Structures are given as C-alpha cells and as structure tokens.
C-alpha cells in the first residue's frame, strides 16, 4: 500500500483518497516573470512521477497546476522593460510549456490563470469579510490571523515568531496578510468593492483549487519554500471559508535544488534554465538526474553528478534496446532451463521491490537502484543466453518502470510507424552485409561500415554472432 509523507502531520501515512477511485491533486505552479529553470523543473518532475505512479496504481488523477500571471515580480519587470505585464506572462508561459514538454512532464488537466479568475477571487474575499475573518483597510483587504485559531498547524510557526512581521497600511496586526492589494500608480488593476487593485498571492490558490476540485481534496503540492507563508495562508483562507477540516488531506513538499550554497533562484542569480541545459544534455538524462534523489531531499547541482546520471541512464537504456532487438528472434525458442526459471523469479523479485520502494513515499533512488540491479542481470545473464521467459519478463519490468518514471518511453514506442520499420530493416540489412565481411575476415570493409554508421549516430555493440544497434539522438 502507498504511504505518503504528509507535511501536515509530519509523518508517513497510508494513502486513502476521499473518493476511492479519484485523486484530486493540486500543485502550485509558476509565477511567469522569467524562464523556467532546473530548480522549478525538479519540483514539476517530482510531482509528475507521483501523478504517474498514482495512475499506474489505477487511480484517475485530476491534476491541476495554477499559473500566477499577475504578481509583484511581473509588474516590476513590466515597469523596467516597458513591456505589458500580460506580454511578459504570455512569453514565459510558452517557455514553461516548452521546458515541461521537453522533460516529458504530462500536461495538467487545467492550468488556471489568476487574471482569468478575478471575479471568483473577489467573491471569495467578500465572504471571508462577511464571516469575520477579513477586513478592509485603506483600499486593501487583510486576513485577520488571530481570527483563525489553527494558524501555524502546517509550518509550526508561533504567534511570537509572527510578531516580528512588517507593519502595513491599515493592518491591525503585523502578521495579517493581504487578500487584496490596492493599486499603486501605473500598476495594472481590476475594480473591486474596495476600489481598484489586484489579488494577493495566497488567495489565488485557495480560490482556483476549490473552483476545480471542490471544498476538500486529496493532495496539495509545492516546493518546501512554500510551506510558510504561502501554504499556511492557503489553509487559513480555505478552512475559514469552507469550514471543512482538513481542507487538504495530504500536503507534499519537495526539497530545493541547490546551486553553490543557495537554492536556485532568479533573485540570487544562480540560475540554469531548462532551455540552456537541454541544449547540452538529452532531456531524459536531465529527467533521470532530477529523480535520482528522493523528492524531499535537496539536490546539490553539479555537472559532474549530472554526467554520472547520464551514464547511469544510458546503461539502462542500452539494456532495454538490446533486449528489444533480440525479442523477435527468440519467439518460439522455449527452452525454459532451470537457470532461466531462476532468473525469471529474480526479475519478478526486483520488479516487486521497485514497487515497494515507490509505495514507500515515492522512493525513486531505491526504485532506480532496483532497475540497475535488473540491468546487471540483463547484461550478465539474460543477454548471454536469451530465452523468451527472461527476455520478455525483463522487458515487461522495464516497461512498467518507463510508465512510472516517464523515462525510456521511446524504446517502447519504437517501430510503430512504417518509416521507422523501414529504417530498422535497412540498418539490419547493412549489418547483415557487414557480418558477411566479418566472416570472411575482411576487417577493413567491416570497420568502414561500422564507422560510417556511427557517424550517422547509430551505436553498435558486437555480440558473438550478431551486432546490436541503437539510434542515439
Ligand atoms: Zn499556490
């Protein structure tokens, strides 16, 4: 059974969604003032793997990621560059989708944008005022933290710690936070019962998540830097509004990507964008790297560790590709020796251990280690004396892993199109010709064919009496 570490209770809990078949899943998405960097990518890939695993377990997952398209940083950039705020947002939304598509992150079902939900936000705030949880002051609206007795239950922040917070225009307590911000001169604004202004950051997630997922849902995710104040404030707003506790059953937070000594962030300037990194590495190598540690751990970025991950990823990819090539030939050649049977059970054991690791709070490093054990078995045993029993069981285990991790998918889609089949046949024909030269010991011609193929990006590995190949993109 799947167990998830819940930030709300600070422990691992068995996963039981509110409805046994549907998982309602909301993740705090990007503030689109700049390009998507690999720190963001770590978070989105982590949640993508969780979503894929839930789908693998048979749940229907309703997955929502919001887009913050109006916010201080976007306004600041607009004032600095002279570009309209929505133009800045639109450009960076395109970049966000480019980056997440490249990394094979499944698209969410809905990407609600703040600027398209202003009416809903205003109505939500009006009700909070009506219920006595919020108040208007000088054109702003604040949430009264003292009115919500559970405040601090997610982040464990105390009232004492909160007292050091900034005083603001008309705030009753320094730690009250803005639901509606009065527009300053030259800022974009919407009209409201409290005058022209725009929503605060926290309220948007309370409003947009409940609009699509209802007054209570299963999973709310985000980077660990959002626990306070963002998620603490979301809980206060939503539980005050809906009077349902807990508003969200499982809170999941991901560890940050560290660059040098600090977390990767635009404001520090230690940023590598997904666009930059994918020009140097295969996006699947980057994806593998990002899930090579546990999602709750920090990942200290270095090129060296990325190169390590690249080699590890390709080791598995090669094994799958080699198995795929001998698959067709060995059909019908059942020997089912005792040794093969033993290997078969070993494959099943590793497959089950991979699932157990994922069930334990999505433990991808252990799950990937199981995949490497399988790969050693493939290279040492299965490829040397291939039998349908072992080859097909190993491929099945890889295919499941591919579905869960969102990696190696090309290997399982290969050969579907007519053109791909033709390319495959042609490469096999060339290799058969080369084999003839090898048998006649005409090495220079055989080597010339091999080197020409390699130049085209076709990798070869010579076995005893045949040559395996794969196209390296
Ligand atoms: Zn949020």
Question: Can you tell me about this structure?
Answer:
The chain has 3 domains: 3-122 and 202-300, HUPs (Rossmann fold), CATH 3.40.50.620; 303-413; 418-471. Helices cover 49% and strands 14% of the residues. It has 16 helices and 15 strands. It has helices at residues 38-56, 72-81, 85-102, 118-130, 159-162, 201-213, 227-242, 274-278, 283-290, 303-330, 338-359, 364-382, 388-405, 409-413, 418-439, 443-455, and strands spanning 3-6, 11-14, 22-27, 60-65, 134-137, 140-143, 177-182, 197-199, 217-223, 248-254, 257-259, 262-263, 299-300, 458-462, 467-471. β11 (257-259) and β12 (262-263) form a beta hairpin. α6 (201-213) crosses α7 (227-242) and α11 runs parallel beside α13 (388-405). Residues 28, 205, 230 line the site of zinc ion (ZN). The site of zinc ion (ZN) has 3 residues, from loops.
Question: What secondary-structure arrangement, pairings included, does this model have?
Answer:
Blueprint: E1 3-6, E2 11-14, E3 22-27, H1 38-56, E4 60-65, H2 72-81, H3 85-102, H4 118-130, E5 134-137, E6 140-143, H5 159-162, E7 177-182, E8 197-199, H6 201-213, E9 217-223, H7 227-242, E10 248-254, E11 257-259, E12 262-263, H8 274-278, H9 283-290, E13 299-300, H10 303-330, H11 338-359, H12 364-382, H13 388-405, H14 409-413, H15 418-439, H16 443-455, E14 458-462, E15 467-471
Parallel strand pairs: 3-4, 3-9, 9-10, 11-13
Antiparallel strand pairs: 1-2, 5-6, 6-7, 7-8, 11-12, 14-15
Helix pairs in contact: 1-13, 4-6, 6-7, 9-10, 10-12, 10-13, 11-12, 11-13, 12-13, 15-16
The protein binds zinc ion (ZN).
């Amino acid at each position: 059974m799947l167990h998830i570490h819940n930030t709300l209770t600070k422990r691992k809990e068995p996963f039981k969604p509110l409805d046994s078949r549907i998982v309602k899943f909301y993740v705090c998405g990007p503030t689109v003032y700049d390009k998507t960097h690999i720190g963001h990518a770590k978070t989105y890939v982590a949640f993508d793997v969780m979503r894929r695993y839930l789908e693998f377990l048979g749940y229907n997952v309703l997955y929502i990621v919001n887009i913050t398209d109006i916010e201080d940083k976007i306004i600041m950039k607009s004032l600095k560059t002279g570009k309209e705020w929505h133009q800045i947002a639109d450009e960076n939304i395109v970049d966000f989708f480019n980056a997440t598509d490249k990394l094979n992150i499944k698209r969410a079902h809905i990407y609600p944008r703040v600027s398209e939900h202003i009416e809903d936000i205003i109505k939500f705030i009006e009700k909070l005022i009506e219920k006595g949880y919020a108040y208007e002051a000088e054109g702003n609206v604040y949430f009264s933290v003292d009115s919500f007795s559970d405040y601090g239950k997610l982040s464990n922040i105390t009232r004492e710690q909160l007292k050091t917070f900034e005083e603001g225009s008309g705030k009753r307590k320094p730690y009250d936070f803005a639901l509606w911000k009065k527009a300053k001169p030259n800022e974009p604004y919407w009209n409201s019962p409290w005058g022209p202004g725009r929503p605060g950051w926290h309220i948007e997630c309370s409003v947009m998540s409940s609009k699509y997922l209802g007054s209570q849902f299963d999973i709310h995710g985000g980077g660990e830097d959002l626990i306070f104040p963002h998620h603490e404030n979301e809980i206060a707003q939503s539980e005050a509004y809906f009077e349902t506790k807990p508003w969200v059953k499982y809170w999941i937070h991901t560890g940050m990507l560290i660059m040098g000594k600090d977390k990767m962030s635009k404001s520090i300037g230690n940023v590598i964008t997904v666009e930059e990194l994918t020009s140097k590495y295969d996006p699947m190598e980057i994806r593998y790297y990002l899930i090579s540690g546990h999602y709750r751990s920090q990942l200290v970025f270095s090129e060296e560790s990325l190169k390590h991950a690249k080699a590890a990823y390709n080791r598995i990819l090669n094994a799958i590709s080699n198995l795929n090539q001998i698959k067709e030939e060995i059909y019908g050649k059942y020997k089912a020796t005792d040794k093969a049977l033993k290997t078969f059970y070993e494959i099943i054991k590793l497959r089950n251990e991979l699932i157990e690791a994922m069930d334990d709070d999505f433990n991808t490093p252990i799950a990937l280690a199981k995949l490497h054990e399988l790969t050693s078995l493939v290279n040492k045993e299965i490829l040397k004396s291939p039998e349908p029993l072992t080859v097909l069981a190993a491929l099945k285990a890889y295919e499941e892993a591919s579905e869960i991790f969102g990696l190696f998918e090309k290997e399982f889609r290969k050969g579907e199109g007519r053109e791909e089949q033709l390319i495959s046949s042609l490469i096999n024909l060339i290799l058969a010709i080369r084999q003839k030269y090898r048998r006649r010991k005409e090495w220079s011609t055989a080597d010339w064919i091999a080197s020409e193929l390699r130049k085209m990006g076709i990798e070869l590995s010579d076995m005893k009496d045949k040559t395996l190949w794969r196209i390296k993109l």
